[in-house]
Amino acid sequence: MASVKQFQVTFDCAEPERVARFWCEVLGYVVPPPPQGFGTWGDFDRSLPAESRGGAFACVDPSGVGPRLFFQRVPEGRVVKNRVHLDVRAGTGLVGEERLAALEAECTRLVALGAVRVQLLVADGVNESCIAMQDIEGNEFCLD
Asked: Model's pTM, two decimal places?
């Protein structure tokens, strides 16, 4: 029997800390403590060579259940549709109007954080409704 491995989800982005803090708010994640010997992440960042400062940031599930999210600065912007995206499970177990109301309420909260609503995908008899969205740098995700 294969053992379960831990994993992290890595985002390429222009502003790692800004995008990480957005996802902290979306998911209820937190910024982990800075490395040993540093009082703050700012202190750690200032210890790096100038070209590396602000180049990465992370957030974690405070319960330890969800994967770590890691954000790394890359020089190029997003060019094509994401091949992998997050589904934010805001309507689990809900159907019909009750599900739509829960998704719309969460969509309103996330838009206030800087997300962009792209499209409501209405239930089609096979799949329940969901809302396609983009984070603050245009990465796709779904409210599901």
From this structure: 0.86
